[in-house]
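Tokenised fold entry reproduced for absentees:

. . .
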Amino acid sequence: MSVQSSYQQALPYFPAPLQKPLSRIPPERAAQIQELRLRIGRKLHAVIRGREQVVTGSGLLTAEPADGITVSRQLLDTVFQNLCSHSLHSVQGAVRQGFVTIAGGNRAGLCGTAVMQHGTLETIRAVSSINIRIASQRTGCAEPLVNRLGGTDACGGLLIAGPPGSGKTTVLRDLSRLIGMQRRVCLIDERGELAAVSNGIPQFSVGTQTDVFDGYPKAEAIAAAVRVMSPEFIICDEIGGEAETEAMLASVHTGVQFLASAHAGSEQELYRRPQLRMLFRAGVFRHTAMLSSGEQCGLLRSVSPVRKELP
């Protein structure tokens, strides 16, 4: 399995006091980094295999907090402004959802003080924490799952689940590559993480017969894909909302097959979610695949047929 990390594409968003030590991390070690976490008044952390390690001024990763770089208010504000390209208004919609997608398919999660208007979240001010999730293409990581299911043609009707940070997006991306080399695929990339499209060109390998709906809300993209692109497979990340559930239910009898992901720590949690139960009952998904997290991030834990009798 080969690994293509977007770590280097995240570095320009950091000011020099943070960028220099981050650039000193050896490439083979940097390629393993899943997240870079910044919290005001605390040390800069890198997450590898689910474990946080402190980044030192010389680019070492250590468990000793005393050796790390402290993130000041000024440093964090500079990172935030860089993430927004110094125009908060231009990314207001994304900030309202708590994240900004940046170069290479990397995603910056934001934590701070909510600004409410008429009972609705308007924006975030006084950002206090930033978590930059590093996108990566792990070519071949989906092959064990494909083999378990009996080939790419048998992958339709698949729901991939796991806790946050378990590698669901990475596995979906590789499934798109594998299936999209043989079949027509529409990849719904609402947050720009799956394909990392730049000037209309995916920066990750997602399949030669794959068409990418970049930045579209999932529900609108699913309807448009079925209407105008004649896909055999539709792939989308992190489902569970009412709008995309309705769009999938409306498309289930058109012959298209879905592959998607959802947050869940166990198979039992999947069956407790009302929107997913509707999709299971309608036959949108035939199998569920559970991924491990932490030290075993991305490891295929189980593949199971959807239960005929829902609990």
DSSP finds eleven helices and 18 strands in the chain. The chain has two domains: 2-133, 137-305. Residues 168-180 form the longest helix (13 residues).
